[in-house]
Specification:
single chain, 163 residues, mainly alpha, globular
Length: 163
């Protein structure tokens, strides 16, 4: 997308690790699979971390893993992100994050898999709420949210073959 990451700093969050893998030419599948939980959210909540921060990092990680799945044709990773999205439909609110629209393409992908089902409808509404939330401060997305949305649009275009 033409955005340089700038100076590297120590990384230890799953979201940061996965986004660094997005920028890598060929991420190591075993390294990625070793940091994500096999079911439910991609990583368990640490009770010492506020729910808002955990949710934002979790949704950012979901979008990064989904992006890796789309770029590298890893269907298993895509299904894992859809499973995590289903978990979030049941267990978190879309306003638990800090007004950044992380994981919108994953919820839209889940909606697209079965748009008439209750899960599909809920996924679309979750995505719509994330989009709405990122515009509440200034009636438009802040710069980070705009980049997140740009990535989401690019990933969806790649997934649907219209890029």
């Amino acid at each position: 997308m033409g955005v340089e990451p700038g100076e590297q700093r120590a990384r230890n969050g799953i979201d940061e690790t996965l986004w660094l893998a997005v920028g890598a030419d060929s991420p190591a599948p075993s390294a990625i699979e070793s940091i994500i939980d096999p079911t439910g959210p991609l990583h368990r909540q640490d009770e010492s971390v506020a729910i808002e921060l955990w949710t934002e990092r979790e949704l950012g990680a979901i979008q990064a893993l989904w992006r890796l799945a789309v770029i590298h044709g890893r269907q298993l990773w895509r299904w894992r992100t859809l499973d995590a999205a289903r978990w979030h439909l049941e267990h978190t609110q879309p306003d638990n994050a800090t007004n950044h629209p992380w994981a919108i393409p994953v919820f839209l992908d889940l909606w697209n898999t079965d748009p008439a089902s209750e899960t599909g409808i809920d996924a679309r509404l979750y995505a719509e709420t994330l989009l709405h939330n990122c515009q509440t401060q200034a009636a438009r997305p802040d710069p980070l949210s705009a980049l997140i949305l740009l990535d989401a649009a690019d990933g969806l275009a790649k997934l649907l073959g219209s890029d």
